[in-house]
Model the fold of this input.
Amino acid sequence: MAEPGEKPSIDLNNLKAGGFIKERGKDLFTIRLRVPGGRMAIPRLKKIAQVAEKYGGEFIHLSVRQSMELININFRHFDAVVEELGEADQKVASCGARVRVPVACGGCEYNPNGLVDTQKSALEVDQKLFGTPTGHHKFKVAFAGCPFDCPKSATNDVGFQGALLPRLDKDACISCGLCAKNCAPGAITMGKDKKPLFKDDPCIWCGDCVKVCPTGAWEAKQTGYNVRIGGKWGRNPLVGSLFATLLPQEEAVEFIAQVLAWYQEKAGGQGRIRLGDIIIQEGPQLLLAHLREKFPHSVVTETIPPQVIDTQIGSRKIKP
Ligand code: SF4
Ligand code: SF4
Ligand code: SF4
Done:
């Protein structure tokens, strides 16, 4: 790093890959911090506030992907900022063509809707895959605890959504009808025998029937992640397609690693191209076959390519 008064020699691309992003102002950078799953221990938060007060501007920015960003940091203070943040074990994030910091909702730890431990998954991905160069483009992962999908997992390269497959013990049912009333997608109706009738197709595996049943007649037959692949946001967004259902939570890291390996192989020589565009180009069956070898119990038999969402439609139609 240059001393005060020295002429700086900065490779902006390398800095950005390391989480240091050039601002408009002369010599000023934003430093993006690594906050997997958006969880921040209180001592770490205090340290970040101290460092921001000492070296930064008047505020900290919270990014849409749960990172904290220190604003208005002079590049001459990079070493000191990194060192002082390190005292609270706070690390800097990364940008560029790498596996990014995973985002996650609170999951099942305290959230009444959560079906899986999204925070544990986000930490595992962060420890094992964060910063892996893709060779092509950014690679984003998100974990949602249930089908409400607050983290918008389907617009990530690999998006995980907690799911629960319900099972009914008819003998334990007291025919109160609560499950049918609370099943928003209409997968449960009450039969002539005053017991619930379950239809597989409309079920979105939300687990609400299990939560409302007063006798425990509905229970979890299986829980895991439904996984969508090939989503992205930006100027040309895509919604990822369903590639796996009820993937065991402990297989999430290996699943991502396998998707990444396929992406790197198929995107070879094509430069900056996102995973979803490669799936559209190659067709989803090749990736399905690759994943089915490793995860035969979870990968679906067929799927569709990622779907375009036209977020610019209004601005194209209305002439200035
Ligand atoms: S996705 Fe589900 S579990 Fe996660 S915050 Fe939203 S409602 Fe809660
Ligand atoms: S899991 Fe959700 S959608 Fe499926 S039957 Fe239960 S309440 Fe209905
Ligand atoms: S909520 Fe439970 S007890 Fe009530 S009808 Fe449904 S299965 Fe039966």
Observations:
- The chain has a mean pLDDT of 93.
